[in-house]
Write a sequence for this structure.
């Protein structure tokens, strides 16, 4: 038996795989993967020294199975193997919007868990929302495993859509913001390479200060904002462009889309 099987090794499947190897201490040969893209499977096998096989063997041979295919592909992935799952297995779904109730239509035997990680799990700095099908003595073990990927928040299943809109999609908002900061630096005379490095460190340092200080973000914002200074002029421009409204609307729209996927 393999300790872990991963069905689907796209960006999120690879993030989980990398985290398990580098942070959870699971050896590559203890992990088996499968994907409809065989070139992708070959690349991942070479990169991480894991095993690769077809989906039937992944289900047959794994203790814990991560399901990381596209939400639209859930039926084509699970229908052919629905009779192969066992009572003592754990199935962890990464599919945005796909509820446990729907997964159970394909298989009721394994313990089903839904998670919503984000791509910083690649470096062990992710956010992972998790909901359990039911109470289980395996909960502490699963939570400890997921914590190797980042910070874990156990929530009711209906709130996973919100976590999807906030942290699942959130890195894209942040990367877009960093690029906008850098482009602003370019507009005012810096090279893009230098501006990007400065913008990246500014966001990283600000996030670490917020986390480690325990202060409210408004308090830290006001520390930077002097009367009639540069920062208040910049903030005013953001408010004129409805910056907060745009960010809040992005989270709302992504949350609604996650609900639609179900």
């Amino acid at each position: 038996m393999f300790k872990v099987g991963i069905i689907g090794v796209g960006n999120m499947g690879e993030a989980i795989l990398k985290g398990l190897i580098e942070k959870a201490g699971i050896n590559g040969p203890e992990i088996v993967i499968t994907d409809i893209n065989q070139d992708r499977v070959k690349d991942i096998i070479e990169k991480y020294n894991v095993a690769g096989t077809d989906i039937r063997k992944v289900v047959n041979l794994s203790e814990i199975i991560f399901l990381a295919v596209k939400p639209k592909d859930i039926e084509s992935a699970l229908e052919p193997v629905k009779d192969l799952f066992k009572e003592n297995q754990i199935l962890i779904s990464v599919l945005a919007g796909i509820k446990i109730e729907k997964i159970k239509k394909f298989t009721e035997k394994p313990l089903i868990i839904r998670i919503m990680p984000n791509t910083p799990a690649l470096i062990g700095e992710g956010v992972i929302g998790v909901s359990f099908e039911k109470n289980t003595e395996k909960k502490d073990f699963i939570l400890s495993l997921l914590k190797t990927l980042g910070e874990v928040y156990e929530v009711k299943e209906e709130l996973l859509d919100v976590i999807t809109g906030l942290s699942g999609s959130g890195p894209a908002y942040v990367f877009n913001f960093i690029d906008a900061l850098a482009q602003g630096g370019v507009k005012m005379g810096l090279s893009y390479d230098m501006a990007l490095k400065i913008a990246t460190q500014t966001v990283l340092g600000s996030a670490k200060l917020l986390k480690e200080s325990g202060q409210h973000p408004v308090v830290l914002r006001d520390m930077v904002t002097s009367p009639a200074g540069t920062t208040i002029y910049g903030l005013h421009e953001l408010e004129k462009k409805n910056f907060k409204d745009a960010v809040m609307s992005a989270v709302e729209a992504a949350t609604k889309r996650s609900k639609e996927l179900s």
